[in-house]
Amino acid sequence: MQPNSIDQSIDKPALFSGLSLAPSLLLAIKKMDFEQPTPVQLQAIPLALEGKDLLVSAETGSGKTAAFLLPILQHLLTMPTTRGTRALVLTPTRELAQQVFKQCQQLTEFTELKTGLITGGDDFRLQQNMLRRNTEIVIATPGRVLELMDQDIPDFSNLEVLVLDEADRMLDMGFSEDVLTIANSCNAQRQTLLFSATLTHFGVIKMADKVLNNHEIVALNTLHDGHRNIEQQIVLADDNDHKLKLLTWLLQNETYDKALVFTNSRLQADALRGPLRGQKLRVGVLHGEMDQKDRNRMMELFRGGEVKVMLATDLAARGLDIKGINLVINFDVPRNGINYIHRIGRTGRVDELGLTIALVKHTEWNLMSGIERFLKQKFKKRAIKELEGKYKGPKKLKASGKATGGKKKEEPKKAAMEKVKVRLRDKKNVGKRRVPSSKPAVDGTQA
Ligand code: AMP
Predict the structure, then answer these.
(1) Ligand 1 centroid to 180 CA: how many Å?
(2) Ligand 1 mean position to 175 CA, how many Å?
(3) Structurally, what CATH architecture does the domain formed by 4-219 represent?
(4) pLDDT digits (tens, 9 = 90+) for 221-231
(5) How would you write 51-98 as a 3-class SS string?
(6) Which of ligand 1's atoms lies nearest the C-alpha of 103?
(7) Please, which residues have CB within 8 angstroms of residue 309's CB and are 6 or more apart in sequence?
(8) d(Cα 137, Cα 104) in Å, to the nearest integer?
(9) What residue ranges do the domains of the chain occupy?
(10) Which of 173, 281, 336, 357 is such that its CA lies 20 to 30 A from the CA of 400?
(11) Given this chain, do its domains 4-219 and 230-387 carry the same CATH topology?
């Protein structure tokens, strides 16, 4: 099968030989007829080779398997051998484990590295023996690994790389606890690569918070998938006053246990507190400039339910893991897709639905449509009858979803053209009669 998304837009085709891979791996790649790296391989391999933890969105068919196997193999070939399993790949199903295993065998054909497969249904003894023989790379499903762990067999204390493949599916299949147990039994200094078809799966973001360390995000091919459990809505607003009314209405009328309201600045978060308290809402504020003691106290109040609505900035909310947050409102549209993902990842729990609403005014439309494009998703537009404003979105949209027109941008262009015309006219008139005037012309140039 060919990968479904080789990027044709790259002028000079990128080659595997440019990815700092060992000759033995390049030989295997050639034998497998991989001519060019796919986009996910191009982006993920160099970062993984730097030893970074990664959260990667890539669907099946994108070439994601080689995107994690190649940097692992390169790493194992260059670092001195240790005892025990050196790389562990966890997959949700036996079938996927078998596919990854097969690809790993092909890629290691010209090396001494050994790969093992551990899935339910296969001979337990053989798997025990394979692990005892210091097989470097183990591809496995979580259930059987746990069974073996009960017998104290696998040794992940020297593990160098852990991969969670199709993490969203693993979580949907109920493996969340199993995966965490296995991850916690692994060497804490390891590198971890988390691959998921979608980044808007709250479980994935929570898992990423727990197992990744200072990670980078590679966002590609996010699916219009059916297993998102965060409903994402957009409510249009005229200005910040209108937003405040909408926010108050939503906090008074939506059903939620705890709500998190994001602003882009500390000042905005502080400014909302008074009016919301005035509406008898139990509101707290969390931002980066509060000292740790105040932050901890605020978190305790939120956790305990004394505070039901928390106003927060992005920085303050990183890593916030509080149960029962099932409503996230973006008072300000976040500055980029990654912040958006982190914000919405605060909502929902494994067995719950979460709702996230962005309040969008006209100056934020393009930012919001950029986020939709980044996530390859269209959010549901919602109108609040009681508070409908004048702004209904741009009259015309570009194919990208952004507003057409941009008159303000056209103006300087027009002015520049006028200036050129004036200069040309002046050139023509050199030596001719000149009007001795310094009166500015309409566009501000000197006539
Ligand atoms: P995956 O997304 O990892 O399941 O890969 C999908 C298919 O694409 C598999 O059959 C791979 O063997 C193949 N493949 C992966 N990378 C490349 C590449 N760079 N060029 C051609 N085929 C590839």
Answers:
(1) 28
(2) 26
(3) 3-Layer(aba) Sandwich (3.40)
(4) 554 443 356 78
(5) CCCEEEECCCCCCHHHHHHHHHHHHHHHCCCCCCCCEEEECCCHHHHH
(6) 12
(7) 251, 258, 259, 260, 261, 276, 281, 282, 283, 284
(8) 9
(9) 4-219, 230-387
(10) 357
(11) yes
Q: Distances from the Cα of 427 to the Cαs of 102, 417, 432, 433, in angstroms?
A: 73, 15, 10, 12
**Residue whose CB lies within 8 A of the most ligand 1 atoms, among 43, 57, 62, 65, for a mutation test:** 65
- Assessment of whether the complete model's pTM goes beyond 0.90: no
Helix (H) or strand (E) segment spanning residue 217: strand 216-219
Counting every residue, how long is the chain? 447
Give the model's pLDDT for residue 13. 64
For ligand 1, residues with CB inside 6 Å are 1-3, 34, 36-38, 41, 60-66
> Which residues of the chain register pLDDT less than 70?
1-13, 221-229, 317-321, 347-353, 406-447
Owner of token pair 């691959």: 195
The closest residue, in CA terms, to atom 8 on ligand 1 is 3
What residue's CA is closest to ligand 1, atom 14? Answer: 63
Tokens encoding 293: 């003691």
pLDDT digit string, tens, across residues 77-130 = 998 877 889 999 999 988 899 999 999 999 999 999 999 999 988 888 889 889
Token digits of residue 307: 């505070």
Fold of the domain built from segment(s) 230-387: Rossmann fold (3.40.50)
